[in-house]
Design goal:
Elements lengths: L7 E4 L3 H9 L5 E5 L16 E2 L8 H11 L6 H9 L1 H10 L14 E2 L9 E2 L6 H15 L3 E5 L1 E9 L2 E9 L2 E6 L2 E4 L20 H8 L4 E2 L4 E8 L12 H4 L3 E3 L18 H13 L4 E4 L8 H4 L1 H9 L9 E10 L2 E3 L11 E3 L4 E2 L11 H18 L19 H4 L3 H13 L6 H16 L5 H19 L24 E2 L7 H7 L5
Parallel strand pairs: 1-2, 1-10, 2-6, 10-17, 16-18
Antiparallel strand pairs: 3-5, 4-5, 7-8, 8-9, 11-16, 11-19, 12-15, 13-14, 14-15
Helix pairs in contact: 1-5, 1-11, 2-3, 4-11, 6-15, 13-14, 13-15, 14-15
Length: 519
């Protein structure tokens, strides 16, 4: 592959990557994805929509307050204010790129309600197929752009550094190693849900961007905070299809096999923050019960019209949600932690930016507010682009680097080691954690990550899982998406971010081994 060092390299073609690439125009961009578009982008699976204070009874300040409340004391107030303030401009940008948002019979934007929101502020595009609709429009705009070159099937293995600055990518395409020079590198690679056996994410979402950044020396932040969606549909799928939170926003209720409401005595009821609902469902599962989401009364015959995606999954499993409750369980859904970035999306490594789920901006804190993820991706994608466009960065054409072999796309997601990691993470680093389980996970993951026979993909997945387990072991308290049964209370002393680097969890020699530099 011929590299053009004057281009910006954006890795990831979900909403964060696409918004960044489109916002960089007319600056030349190479948009990189390891798979074929758009099947493996998590954006395409998003049902809930995008949050923005657009109603007459709403305001960015109210949206920010809800965001901070859900973040359980770990969110950054200035970031919440900034993102919610920029939401309307982000929505306008999406509309300009061809996104058609749902409207009511009067032509006004249709605004939905979701858990922990104090106002109806959830915008949808195509009902509960919002992610796919937004992605489709953005991808069409990117393909029509003369400044964006889309490269599919490129497996990035390393960020190339020169004098401590990111100046390109090493990787392979069609089994051929190559180096791609770039004036700036943007990671928009998504989350880590694929590290868990029960997940709503694409199975390829295993933190590849986190591994790239960690090996480059970047600071990672709040890695222990993983959000488990309480209503993944337990219909036998892997990944598990999502019963969108909008169902509960429209009155669907969580019940046990006897029809009793399981959230009746909990503040906020069925619309309590996701971590609270997830633990309530998990407790029933641990007691051997099955939990259901019942929309028969609240939605009934309107299911197929209002929630076509949920209806389609249910029908495929032989279930009619209009007349039968849907079996549900918690599943890994969103990673609040990621690469530490500032308000411009800059990481701690010069020349390296990050946005979307792979980044830790300070917005989500310990527990993401529903439908804030797409908003964050849009706002930060635009901010990253603005920052890069305003800079004069050195252009390097004389880059050389050793690229490690990359496994084929066909074998990378279904490896036996990944299956063991997913089971281990579900059991020991899941909804409810404790010292013994986290220590067991850490010990096993260290051995996996140090195995010199591992492919680059397996080494990366073990490395990311290890960092999550290590960070969870360090945080001896319970906040939001991180719950320790041995430390069930929140501690004021821990009301802070947790930063970690690869070098901190091993000696320098061990860090080199974990990075794959095995001589």
């Amino acid at each position: 592959m011929n590299g053009n060092g004057d281009r910006v390299a954006v890795i990831g073609a979900g909403v964060a990557g696409l918004v960044t690439a489109l916002s960089l125009s007319p600056m030349p961009v190479v948009l990189i994805t390891c798979s074929r578009l758009p099947s493996d982008a998590a954006t395409a699976w998003a049902q809930g929509g995008i949050a923005a204070a657009m109603g007459e009874d709403d305001a960015p300040e109210l949206h920010a307050a809800d965001t901070l409340a859900a973040g359980a004391g770990i969110s950054e107030p200035h970031v919440a204010r900034m993102v919610t303030r920029d939401a309307a401009d982000g929505i306008a940008a999406l509309a300009a790129w061809g996104v058609s948002f749902d409207r009511d019979i009067g032509g006004a934007l249709a605004l939905g309600l979701e858990g922990a929101h104090s106002r109806r502020r959830i915008l949808h595009a195509g009902g509960d197929g919002s992610g796919a609709a937004i992605l489709s429009a953005l991808l069409a705009a990117a393909r029509a752009s003369a400044s964006i070159d889309i490269v599919e099937g490129f497996q990035a293995t390393d960020i190339v550094l020169r004098d401590g600055r990111a100046v390109g990518l090493a990787g392979s395409k069609a089994g051929r190693s190559t180096v791609l020079p770039a004036r700036a590198v943007v990671l928009a690679t998504g989350g880590v849900g694929g590290l868990y056996a029960a997940t709503t994410n694409p199975r390829g979402a295993v933190g590849s961007g986190l591994a790239l950044a960690a090996r480059a020396g970047a600071v990672l932040r709040d890695i222990e905070f993983v959000q488990f969606h309480p209503t993944a549909m337990a219909l036998g799928g892997d990944p598990m299809p999502l019963a969108t939170e909008a169902l509960r926003g429209e009155g669907a209720q969580l019940i046990d096999a006897g029809g009793n409401r399981i959230m009746a005595e909990v503040p906020g009821g069925d619309l309590a923050p996701r971590d609270i609902v997830s633990r309530a469902v998990w407790a029933r599962m641990a007691a051997g019960e099955t939990v259901y989401l019942d929309g028969r009364t609240a939605i009934g015959a309107a299911f197929s019209r209002r929630f076509p995606t949920v209806t389609r999954y249910c029908h495929a499993a032989g279930l009619d949600p209009a007349t039968q409750p849907i079996p549900v369980r918690p599943a890994a859904h969103y990673h609040m932690g990621g690469i530490r970035v500032d308000t411009r999306g800059r990481s701690s490594v010069p020349g390296l930016w990050a946005c979307g789920e792979v980044a830790a901006t300070g917005l989500h804190g310990a527990n993401r507010l529903a439908s804030n993820s797409l908003l964050e991706a849009v706002v930060y994608g635009r901010r990253v682009a603005a920052d890069i466009c305003g800079q004069t960065l050195p252009v390097r054409q004389d880059i050389s680097a050793r690229a490690r072999p990359t496994p084929s796309a066909e074998g990378r997601v279904d490896s036996g080691r990944l299956a063991r990691i997913r089971a281990l993470m579900d059991r020991c680093v899941g909804v409810v954690r404790d010292h013994d389980g986290l220590s067991t996970a850490r010990q096993r993951l260290v051995r996996m990550a140090r195995n010199p026979a591992l492919t680059a993909f397996d080494a990366n997945t073990a490395l990311v899982a290890l960092v999550i387990a290590e960070a969870a072991l360090r945080r001896q308290e319970s906040w939001g998406g991180h719950y320790r049964r041995d430390y069930p209370d929140a501690s004021p002393a821990w009301r802070r971010h947790g930063d970690i680097t690869l070098a901190e969890i091993a000696t320098l020699d061990e860090a080199a081994e974990l990075a794959g530099e095995r001589g």
